[in-house]
Structure prediction request, 263 residues.
Amino acid sequence: MSAVLEVKDLQIAFGGVKAVDGLSFDVHAKQIVAVIGPNGAGKTSAFNCITGFYKPTAGSVLLNGNAITGKRPADIAAAGVSRTFQNLRLFPDLTVLDNVRAGMHLYGGQSWADAIFHTPRFKRSEAWYTEEAHRWLDFVGYTGPRGVPIRNLAYGQQKQVEIARALARKSDLLLLDEPAAGLNYSEKQRLLELCNRIRELGTAIVLIEHDMGLVMEVSERVVVMNFGKEIAEGTPAQVKANPAVIEAYLGRDEDEEVPHGDA
Ligand SMILES: Nc1ncnc2c1ncn2[C@@H]1O[C@H](COP(=O)(O)OP(=O)(O)OP(=O)(O)O)[C@@H](O)[C@H]1O
Prediction:
């Protein structure tokens, strides 16, 4: 079976800094791949290249065998890539429901005329968007209020809504940038279980994550970056035992976790 995502020798430089310097990995349907590495290793820059927020200096990105390298973020999203952000990017004044609905208009098929004249087609599809939004909020296990502005919610709830919004696009590939950051223990457990249910939908997941307990439990493969370079790739067990990985984390910042911890 061909890969959902193929990243080949991806590179991006900012002035003299090679933020990503030769990253290659594949992700297949129903696979969860983690990208780990110390702060500043280049993980988010890699996500930004894959999703079109940055134009790679070299290398290629293929989605279901088709090159999406350097395309605009909206085109890459429409092609089937959804993402969440390290610092949430929701519309703070829109309601929970409208934030999720906003994620769906990419593939809505409504015309301006439908929207202006509120045609039956428009009303039908608006009702459908609302139903779908509720369905995805249920799917992620969101139990908070749905008609209030998102800015009123606790951080963990906002993160759930961001994942619901990404899922509502029904993409083949979901990129999660530090989904466990700021979550408490039980929220992390629910996230782990959610990742497994997303996998069952047939969606491929790539996650950047510092919580090594979560990474080791949820991922099939782990890609390790340090100073822009890919220093290891393998199963969680292989990566944990890799001397280059242990070395990279020993030179880490105080607040980073070591991959052989079970936290
Ligand atoms: N837009 C940019 N302009 C200049 N330098 C950048 C830009 N984006 C990233 N960098 C640099 O690229 C390097 C990699 O940063 P990046 O944010 O990708 O790392 P990261 O692995 O995601 O780190 P963290 O775990 O802290 O989020 C860093 O040195 C960073 O300062």
In short: The chain is about 40% helix and 20% strand.
